[in-house]
Amino acid sequence: MKKSLVIFIAVFVGVITFLPFLWMISASVMPSGAANTFPPRIFPNKFDFSHYTTLFTRLNLTKYLLNSMIISFGVTLFSLLLNSMAGYAFAKFRFAKKKGLFKFLLSSLIIPAQVTMLPLFLILKNLGLINTYWAIFIPGMASIFGIFLIRQYAFSIPDSLIEAAKMDGATEMQIYLRVILPLCKPILVTLGLFTFMGTWNDFLWPLIVMTDANMYTMPVALANLMSEHVQDTELMMAGSVITIIPVLVVFLALQKYYIKGIMMGSVKG
Amino acid sequence: MQNKTRFSALLLFLGPSLAVIFVFFFLPVLFAFAMSFTDYDIYSLGNFHYLRFVGLKNYSTLLSDPLFWTALKNTFYFVLVGGPLSVATSLGAAILLNSKFIKYKGIFRLVYFLPVVTTLVAVSIVWRYFYHPRFGLLNYILSLVGIGKIDWLGDPTFSMPAIIMLAVWKNFGYNMIIFIAGLQNIPSELYEAASIEGASAWKQFVHVTIPQLAPTTLFISLITMIGYFQLFAEPYVMTQGGPLNSTLSIVLYMYQEGFRWWNIGYSTAIAFMLFFIIMIGTIVQFKLQKEGDE
């Protein structure tokens, strides 16, 4: 009795959670107007993929997909490089005020990013970088959270390994490239995943710095499309599906690294 | 390893990231603070000489600006109702998936978690249609249990609850994962001892689960609160802050003032109010937790 109640609730929550996705996918392949009926249809009575072709031909979606790809991969690469170097340094280097400096960085995590947005916009504007990929690459290159993640992981690397490499005459750079990076692979995947998905899904910052329609990312393009095509339910759903698919694929492939990252982030350092 | 790391190595490894964080994070924070005491607007954007120092004027204007108070009230509504609702849903889902009756836990966890990883703008658009008064799925489902049509996004009474429902759905999976780990860390002897003493399931929940989860709950409440104070994309996509400003949030107001009207000084003052509120909220949460411990 209790068992079936628990299972019933779990399935019920699952159905509710999945319902918006199910409807999104199914409405995206309905003929125009078919999603606006009463009672609403959950499954299409006829398949029509023309909204997808419209998005890619008439509405330039390829360009926005490409922008989102370049931006997300770019930020991910830069942030993996810079954060892994800094995280390793904070874990293993010896220098004065190391603890204090790191604590200061961590405590500044409380400052909401919105505070920086106007000055950052003006700085980038003066550098002529608004409406370029660099407007998103640069502020995303290094993150305090990223440094924190790598540092936590790098602590577990035994000092003896680094010592041994030094005995063999390896430089700091060689140690980083040949010892640290290979050992940090799992955490690099986690951080890369977080960064990629975070950048892909981000809305406010791209909305601010990409004012030229040629530079829109997928979420910005989608929000913009909404204002002109609010009546075209099926078209908007097709656009939503395409926006979500890349992050979903990346997530499904690397789930366990993502879950690990949540756990590491929730352990107070 | 007793000797200090060479300066050149420090410069190479820490230099780039610290430089980026300093120039593109800390410096803008300081600039923003300074700008919030000026009348920086579209005229000074064209010619810097128009810029004037105005002291606390932006902040005093803010306090007598009815729109700011509306944004403040709406944001607090979202944080104080949506926040606890999200945390409670996460805890409920975690307990559900921790139950010994559930098989295929991985699949359930995956489905519950899907909204977290999907793009907020895209799902906000989906939910906008979901809430459609005539053709929306939600009103249809409600009509099956005899509830009449509700204009979710068009009625100021229901617009914020609608945004809260979307936020709970979108976010509960994240904290659920942290709660599941917290639940699994509770020693089973505690439950065994409680059931020997004849404590009911509810008593066990109140006297074992809740206190054992307290540190986890503090952390989750804190990140949820900080995140929820920054509400932006949902109202931007679904309501543009309407109807009758009932979903205008602090960040949406800051965005409109700053990036639509270029009232830069005023907009940075709004951003600093947000920062200030988040700081106070964090301190209050820690205080509450301490009192709970004593």
Rg calculated over all Cα atoms of chain A: 23 Å
Assembly annotation: heterodimer
Number of domains of chain A: 2
Helix content of chain A: over 70%
Span between termini of chain B: 44 Å
Mean pLDDT of chain B: 93
The dominant shape of chain A is globular
Largest protein interface? A-B, 92 and 87 residues
Strand content of chain B is: under 5%
Write the layout of secondary structure elements.
The complex is a heterodimer of chains A (269) and B (294).
Chain A: H1 2-28, H2 50-57, H3 61-92, H4 98-107, H5 114-126, H6 134-140, H7 144-154, H8 159-167, H9 172-183, H10 185-201, H11 204-209, H12 218-228, H13 233-266
Helix pairs in contact in A: 1-13, 2-13, 3-6, 3-7, 3-10, 8-9, 10-13, 12-13
Chain B: H1 7-35, H2 42-46, H3 57-63, H4 66-98, H5 105-117, H6 120-130, H7 137-144, H8 156-184, H9 188-196, H10 201-212, H11 214-229, H12 233-238, H13 250-260, H14 264-293
Write structural notes for this entry.
The complex is a heterodimer of chains A (269) and B (294). Chain A is built from 13 helices and no strands. By secondary structure, chain A is mainly α. Chain A has two domains: 1-48, no CATH class; 49-266, MetI-like (MetI-like fold). Chain A starts with a helix and ends with a helix. With 294 residues, chain B is mainly alpha-helical. Chain B has a single domain, classed as Orthogonal Bundle (MetI-like fold). Chain B has 14 helices and no strands. Chain B has helices spanning 7-35, 42-46, 57-63, 66-98, 105-117, 120-130, 137-144, 156-184, 188-196, 201-212, 214-229, 233-238, 250-260, 264-293. In chain B, helix 5 packs across helix 8 and helix 11 runs antiparallel to helix 14. The two termini of chain B are 44 Å apart.
